[in-house]
Specification:
Length: 409
């Protein structure tokens, strides 16, 4: 009952504020005077189909009508929104006049003084850059403002660079354009990719797409700066750039972004090691391309160095032993063996390639003298021997833990 009375009182107050009689109000709603009287006295509610018409006549929102009170905050927000729209329109109009007027003045001056369009294009490029930051955002669709501004700014910058290059008679446009795109993309491309309407297969691989785009721009920049004068350095830079990026980013992309066949999904570590080994071998082959005297030793040393990580992968991931501790111990033992033979094999390869060594490397424990810490060669052998002993001890400890846990099960 109380709600009906407050509802009726609100109807009566709003009707009188607008200067409407009950009869006029009823005629607009196509109801009788008595029906309006019952509403205002709190004896009945109007039909729900009349709510929208009542709101329009009384100039209130549905929320105000149903709550029987003025929505001050809502009205203020609506007024502020309308004020913002008016200000935006005025701002767009003012900027249109400023930019348009400036262009027209520059156009007339350029034609009247030089009788052709020359520096006008530089002014146009500069104004386009300013407009992309101040004028374009007001036309950008909601949720894609950042991508729109980035695209407009990049296009304006490239246009300005092209005009400046032609005006100065230079040939640096491509280098400047690719360099600018690379630098801007490095900072702003993640934001742009979040707002772009990408296909479904790319939406979950934005990081991979970002790296691929930036890598392509970087390699193109290498090509523009280096080719054709130094194509050998271009290939070297490209290979080692790919190697460095893959070294840190490939594990992340193999887990989330790169779609592997079903049979390879449980062998991501193997794929990672294979890709890294291939890139490393390609890089070393390229660096040793100047003759067989360099190529063969380079390949042999690289292959022996790769034996260590591949041994770890085989021991930890593929050794047919159920205990993780035992597999880890096997990897430590493999490290000890590799540390023992790698210096010796490296020395033999260098000797075969014609390198002169002041002291041939010998297999341990030859040359080890733990009581002698004054001679440099003996100190080196002692340290290497202690390191190998440490890995052997770690391997034995892990294997013992694995056997003990196996017995405990």
């Amino acid at each position: 009952m109380e709600n009906r009375k407050s509802f009726g009182a609100f109807l009566l107050q709003r009707r009188k504020e607008l200067g409407l009689t009950q009869k006029e109000f009823a005629e607009r709603l196509f109801v009788t005077d008595s029906a309006v009287s019952k509403w205002e006295r709190g004896l009945a509610y109007p039909d729900i189909t009349l709510l929208q018409s009542i709101c329009e006549i009384l100039q209130v929102s549905e929320k105000e009508l149903l709550s029987a009170s003025e929505d001050v905050e809502g009205r203020r927000a609506e007024q502020l929104a309308k004020k913002y729209i008016r200000l935006s329109r005025k701002n767009r109009l003012i900027q249109s006049l400023l930019y348009g007027g400036t262009l027209v003045i520059c156009l007339i001056c350029n034609l009247s003084i030089q009788h052709t369009l020359s520096w006008f294009w530089l002014v146009l490029g500069g104004l386009m850059i300013c407009a992309s930051l101040t004028f374009l955002p007001s036309f950008a669709p909601e949720g894609r403002r950042g991508a729109t501004v980035f695209g407009g700014f990049l296009v304006s910058l490239l246009f300005t660079l092209a005009v400046s290059c032609l005006y100065s008679g230079g040939s640096w446009f491509l280098v400047a354009a690719v360099g600018s795109a690379f630098g801007l993309g490095l900072v702003f491309l993640p934001l742009v990719l979040r707002q772009l309407p990408l296909p479904p297969e790319l939406r979950e691989r934005k990081a991979l797409l970002y790296v691929c785009v930036e890598l392509a721009l970087l390699i193109l920049l290498y090509a523009l700066c280096i080719l054709p004068e130094n194509w050998a350095w271009f290939i070297s830079a490209t290979l080692w750039t790919l190697f460095g990026l893959a070294l840190f980013l490939l594990p992340v992309f193999l887990r989330r972004a790169i779609p592997l066949p079903e049979a390879w999904r449980s062998h991501k570590a193997l794929v990672y090691f294979a890709v890294m080994s291939l890139l490393l071998l390609l890089g070393m082959v390229w660096e040793g391309r100047f003759g067989e005297d360099h190529l063969l030793p380079t390949l042999l040393i690289t292959g022996i160095a790769l034996i260590l990580p591949w041994g770890w992968l085989g021991a930890v991931r593929y050794l047919p032993i159920p205990s993780r501790w035992t597999r880890l111990g096997s990897a430590f033992l493999w490290t000890a063996v590799w540390l023992e033979f790698f210096p010796w094999l490296l020395d033999r390869i260098l000797l075969a390639a014609g390198e002169v060594s002041s002291r041939p490397v010998r297999l341990l424990p030859q040359g080890v003298d733990l009581s002698n810490w004054t001679d440099g060669w003996v100190i080196s052998d002692n340290i290497n021997f202690l390191i190998i002993l440490g890995f052997l001890a770690l391997g034995a400890l892990c294997i013992c833990l694995g056997v003990r846990r196996k017995k405990g099960e």
